[in-house]
């Protein structure tokens, strides 16, 4: 990971760490766990655990964006084309999804949750499906099942066709096949 990060000038800065920590929620519990579970101060925990985790995520994102995951992309494209041709959503999910439970079991999202890779759901009409959405580790095609409003909050019910992307180990293996070993003696 460090070699790829160095080669492509990928790094972790204070802003990355701050953003990560904001998403944690209960920072005090994390600080306590760092001390109790690892016998580390929180600054050591950030340096030894959080920073490498963020770097791994950045390297993985870079590899997904810049190296072909031909198999995953083609499978997602074929699923999308099948939906476009008018085939039944569940039939397409059963053929292409790596985990059909995502197509059979709904998730419910409030408007505040419709951010990042959930955002395309907001634009759908009931019964429609989204274009292919790339998330860490997968390609998703959302399907809007229903929208409910109870006077307080609007909720979207969605299912998805989940197509697994290459994982970081697959990318690293592919990367290493092109590595050269040079002897300097």
What's the structural blueprint in terms of helices and strands?
Blueprint: H1 2-7, H2 14-24, H3 27-38, H4 42-66, H5 70-84, H6 89-96, H7 101-104, E1 107-110, E2 133-135, E3 138-149, E4 154-164, H8 168-177
Antiparallel strand pairs: 1-4, 2-3, 3-4
Task: Write a short abstract of this structure.
By secondary structure, this protein is of the alpha+beta class. Helices cover 49% and strands 16% of the residues. A hairpin with a 4-residue loop joins strand 3 and strand 4.
Task: Give structural notes.
- It contains 8 helices and 4 strands, in the order αααααααββββα.
- The chain is α+β, with helices and mostly antiparallel strands and 185 residues long.
- It has a 4-stranded antiparallel sheet.
- A hairpin with a 4-residue loop joins strand 3 and strand 4.
- The mean pLDDT is 86.
What is the count of DSSP helices, taking H or I runs of 4+ residues? 8
Oligomerization category of the chains in this entry: single chain
Strand percentage, roughly?
15-25%
Mean pLDDT: 86
Question: Which properties best describe this structure?
Answer:
four-stranded antiparallel beta sheet, 8 helices, 4 strands, single chain, flat, about 180 residues, alpha+beta
